Amino acid sequence: MANVVVVGAQWGDEGKGKIVDWLSERADVIARFQGGHNAGHTLVINGTVFKLSLLPSGIVRPGKLAVIGNGVVLDPWALFAEIDKLTAQGVAISTDNLMIAENTPLILPLHQDLDQLREAAAGKAKIGTTGRGIGPAYEDKVGRRTIRVADLADDETLEARIDRLLAHHDPLRAGLGAAPIDRAELTARLKAIAPKLLPFS
Question: Rounded to whole angstroms, how far apart are CA atoms 22 and 170?
């Protein structure tokens, strides 16, 4: 079995998506192993333009399995918005051709909040993030307080993970002049997305 890995050595805009799409014609499985839903990739196939931010480039090719690995930080709401957009373009996406690692960490609204709060507080020293919460989600992954796809399958586990996460984020928000996280709203949003996301894991 031959494997090919495409690694970007810059900060982006290298054309990784186009290379992966070109290679995917000869592959059975196309896996995305890192990153989040930032700038993304534009593919043109037989005159049709596909814009991807999160899904692996091979998803637009019939008969391929696309995999989102646990090195990716996954915004589930952005994922399903992207799936809806591609479905409207005639791309069939289901559990038959998309798989998500069950230990993939999630980007939550609180990560986006923190990303944007920090940028605003930095003023002229801001670094110019996309504000989509990718960096803060990676911080929580490394800090072992992230919520992962599989956590959505068990209410008790999910509640414990939320407790740990908010114990970290609420003090950060206070320091930036923001209100605490609405725990009930966050829990409700996660439980609402769970039935859509879990079948892919």
Answer: 45
CA-to-CA distance for 68 and 156, rounded, in angstroms? 25
The residues near 191 (Cβ < 8 Å, ≥ 6 apart) are 152, 155, 158
| pTM listed for this prediction | 0.89
Return left, alpha or beta for 196; rule: phi > 0 is left, psi -120 to 50 is alpha, else beta.
alpha
Secondary structure class of 48 (helix, strand, coil) = strand
Is residue 36 within 8 A of residue 73, CB to CB? The reply is yes
Q: What is the pLDDT of residues 74-109, one digit of tens each?
A: 999 999 999 999 999 999 999 999 999 999 999 999
Per-residue DSSP letters for 64-105? -EEEE-TTB-B-HHHHHHHHHHHHHTT---STTTEEE-TTPB
The reply to whether 113 belongs to the active site is no
Provide the pairing of β-strand 41-45 with 29-32: unpaired
| Catalytic residue from among 21, 28, 37, 41 | 41
Q: Are 59 and 40 in contact (CB under 8 A)?
A: no
Q: Is 41 a catalytic residue?
A: yes
